[in-house]
Amino acid sequence: MDSIIARNAAKHATFESLTMNAQPDGMVHVECKFDGDSRLIAGAATIVVHVARRAGLADQAASEIAVATSKTCDAVLQATGGSRTIRLAADELPDSLQVTIETVADAATAGLLSIEQSRHLADQVRKAVESLADGTAVELHEGFPRVSLVKKCGAARRPFAV
């Protein structure tokens, strides 16, 4: 998929570069980039639900990790000063689902975080998703936040077509 542009009262939002790859072991990796816009964050959460269900998570657990993804995207955008491009990756692992959310570096330096700001973001994310995700990690990559969420799915997996 190349890109989708959502129009809303002259405000454009772009969702681009959606890729879905089946790994040799049968696991799925989905990655996309999108503008930090609430309309697109909702779409990204839907992608996470799809991968979560494929990974064998129950509907409730899939919904929880999707809500955690939305809350984390909001927290990252707030910490970096608003409308930034987000890269989201959802990885189906043998016993869990991992969602990675990071802002994409561009020509502007706005959005760079200090170590202290990164710690504050980590606290915000943990509080926002503590009952929704089984694990969280926040790290800085060249001054930009990268947040990982993990949801355990246990050993039982049900088949699901890509």
Notes on the structure:
The chain has 162 residues and is α+β, with helices and mostly antiparallel strands. It has a single domain (3-152), classed as Histidine kinase-like ATPase, C-terminal domain (Heat Shock Protein 90). Helices cover 33% and strands 36% of the residues. It has helices spanning 38-54, 59-79, 115-129; strands at 3-8, 11-22, 28-35, 85-92, 96-103, 135-141, 144-152. Strands 1-2-3-4-5-7-6 form a seven-stranded antiparallel β-sheet, with helices on one face. Helix 2 runs antiparallel to helix 3 (115-129). The two termini are 16 Å apart.
Distance between the termini: 16 Å
What is the strand tally? 7
Percentage of residues assigned to helices: 25-40%
What would CATH call the architecture? 2-Layer Sandwich
Unreliable residue stretches: 1-10, 156-162
| Alpha-beta content class | alpha+beta
What is the H/E string? EEEHHEEHEE
Short description:
The protein is an alpha+beta fold and 162 residues long. The chain has helices at 38-54, 59-79, 115-129, and strands at residues 3-8, 11-22, 28-35, 85-92, 96-103, 135-141, 144-152. It has one domain (3-152): 2-Layer Sandwich (Heat Shock Protein 90), CATH 3.30.565.10.
